[in-house]
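User: Can you fold this complex?
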Amino acid sequence: MDLLELLPLDELSHGLANLSMFPYFDMAHYIVSIMALREQPGVLEVSRVSPLACWFSSMLFCFGGAVLSAIMLAEPVVAPLSNSTGVLLASITWYLVFYCPMDLVYCCSALLPLRLVLSVMKEVTRTWKVLGGVTLAHSKYKDSLLVMIAIGWAKGAGGGLIRNFEQLVRGVWKPETNELLKMSYPTKITLIGAVLFALQQTRYLPLQTHHLMLIYTVFTVVNKSRMMLTGSSSSPFAAIESAVYKTLFAGHSPYDALTGEVQKACVDQRTTATAGAKEIGENGAAGKTTPVSRVKGQSGSLKAKDKSENADTTNCKKIN
Amino acid sequence: MDLLELLPLDELSHGLANLSMFPYFDMAHYIVSIMALREQPGVLEVSRVSPLACWFSSMLFCFGGAVLSAIMLAEPVVAPLSNSTGVLLASITWYLVFYCPMDLVYCCSALLPLRLVLSVMKEVTRTWKVLGGVTLAHSKYKDSLLVMIAIGWAKGAGGGLIRNFEQLVRGVWKPETNELLKMSYPTKITLIGAVLFALQQTRYLPLQTHHLMLIYTVFTVVNKSRMMLTGSSSSPFAAIESAVYKTLFAGHSPYDALTGEVQKACVDQRTTATAGAKEIGENGAAGKTTPVSRVKGQSGSLKAKDKSENADTTNCKKIN
Amino acid sequence: MDLLELLPLDELSHGLANLSMFPYFDMAHYIVSIMALREQPGVLEVSRVSPLACWFSSMLFCFGGAVLSAIMLAEPVVAPLSNSTGVLLASITWYLVFYCPMDLVYCCSALLPLRLVLSVMKEVTRTWKVLGGVTLAHSKYKDSLLVMIAIGWAKGAGGGLIRNFEQLVRGVWKPETNELLKMSYPTKITLIGAVLFALQQTRYLPLQTHHLMLIYTVFTVVNKSRMMLTGSSSSPFAAIESAVYKTLFAGHSPYDALTGEVQKACVDQRTTATAGAKEIGENGAAGKTTPVSRVKGQSGSLKAKDKSENADTTNCKKIN
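Assistant: Here's the predicted assembly.
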């Protein structure tokens, strides 16, 4: 009947679908997530000043998807905390990554081969999370494709989507950037997964669940490996995105016609209202920054991250 | 029995109460809301850089009341998304307002006669929303007038009340202003409506529901038309507000006695702690800004909005 | 059986456990909370500019714990509003503290003996709140110690934990500080109470509820009195905290090794990316501030608070 059923891939997909995420894959997810937190600028200082804030941030990195989908479905936000084993595992990981004697755990995990394996395992958990979110939403809102996509996306990419508030826990506030304004690769791939699984669950996509799980998992794993090995951050969807964007959103551009005038208006305002602007803080200017300056700001903070990572690596080398 | 029942107005009020909001009035609400979003400073840039953030902001403008009241009543926040027809209509409106070829939809809707009709229709939906919120709260919390007012207000003016977080989606953060600190006209009129309907539902106001609906709708429609036609933004409650304020909140003013000293303290602090202030960001200064400077800041941003609107209008003229 | 049962303290503990918080202790809680709000910098201005925002902030100070625990357990956030008597009492208190003719209420309550009594009464309510939160969580999540601690903590110290968002109501935004990054004394003592009551409820701590209530209440009351009378803000746990910190979180410090490099990186970045930094606002720099500068900033704002309090006191003296 189904082409995939005739191939030996069918058995593989059944095997994958029966794979248990606990404990190894979950563990890999915690390690990679907390290492990603540690590599954010300023986190090492926070881990010394307030271990509690650092722990809370780590839990948001690990369980952000569960928290966000709980908020969206009006289920208790503390529910993830009631999963004692998960929280315990994540807390031990947090402790070892941040405070291990000699910094052994972080330095070992940061070695490319091990990090590659862990990252690939983390990618596998994504399939389970997205599918879990979609089926949960399907059981509550039978026909609503949008709700299924939203919950699947939230479960799979929650940590990224609540980034602004996770940063606030650490005393950092960057309102000028969020995952909706500028999606990162994991957020994009999760959105695509949520759309695919939602279509599959509502029978618009004629595939069996375990087959789609195999296809999606292989795609994410291959992509992640390619990106880590080549060090490229180019999205595999860049061409499609660009085509869709040009077709749908660039037909008529009042923006092009406006740009000159708006910028002029902004400049006028800046020069005339400098006193006021100083009072209301530079935040007030966020709405007026042009996309160019925004990108500049972001590349600046990326640079900072790179430096922080280099510093970490140097540190590891010294210890070794 | 009732004076209103003897008048021909009774039939009119029955007719109004049986009016269906879907699809025409809902549509008008979406158009006016999304046009209001488009006229915010910086939104056109966002609509080019990230259509997704722009769409999400539009949905918050259209369904903000439903989202806020869902949060307050611990009901699923995604519920508005499950109303597929509504979201579809709002999304089509969003697309046409922002990306229509030749910008036809926005330019036509921005013409005064059409805009007046649409705005009046949007005002009519307010009555339904406030009443919906009040009766929903009444069914859950029988005797609590405060809860009924809060939910009615949230349903009717939700978009305004969650403005800070809607702006955050677009990368804008203006902590120094919110609807509680400085209420806009729609927020005020909705609050009054919520109070009236809550009093009516708990029988403190001896009126029938459809009569109050007629009275409130006529009042909001007349007021909105007057404000749009005369271009005045003076609130019809200014006199009452001022009287209440003077009676209740200005009897004794420790503030007047304090102002000098507080300002002196602020100045001292600013000059001595400049280094620290620079580190913690200009936000830290928000607490110290005097009301005067706050107003200055706001008028600054209003000026920006005006300019953006002018720019839009110029743009439309060019096309026409 | 139990040592405490043989002592006359047993009767005392039973008497305390049967004490009703309503109305006197609740009233004391409202007065002390709203006075604490009034002594925040900038609040007097807000109370003149927008009584509504001031009232809303006061309610968050009074019912913050109930609101936060409602959010965490996915119960309606408006539920505290449905407690009409409580809200009415708190609102009357708010009005009297902020707008009483001659400022009599604030000036009287600010006198040390009365303030001491009120503060001690407020400390007593903490025991009831923490216990209420812990038992509520225990009834929903039988075995989860973490959830019980979280809800008990939220109920008892909610006002502090949601401080950032309470400030936002007043137009103040201080992302660089929160209760997780730098815990205040009330937050710490509540956390300890939540841990103790959670251990007691799950039978890990072999004590009866009313005995623990007595012990915890006496401890908080004595501590608060000592701190108010001596004017010291030294935590009674400083020694334990320091020991725990040194044992667990300072074993290996990649931070020490890093500090130089990170700071260098920060300086580099600041000098090279000044243009970008200006665009993204000083907030972007929050992540880069060293702990030292953060502390400096905070001591700056504390100084401001002191000055505001002095100003208030001066004002009271003038009136007297």
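Chain B has two domains: 18-243, 255-319. Residues 255-319 of chain B form one domain.
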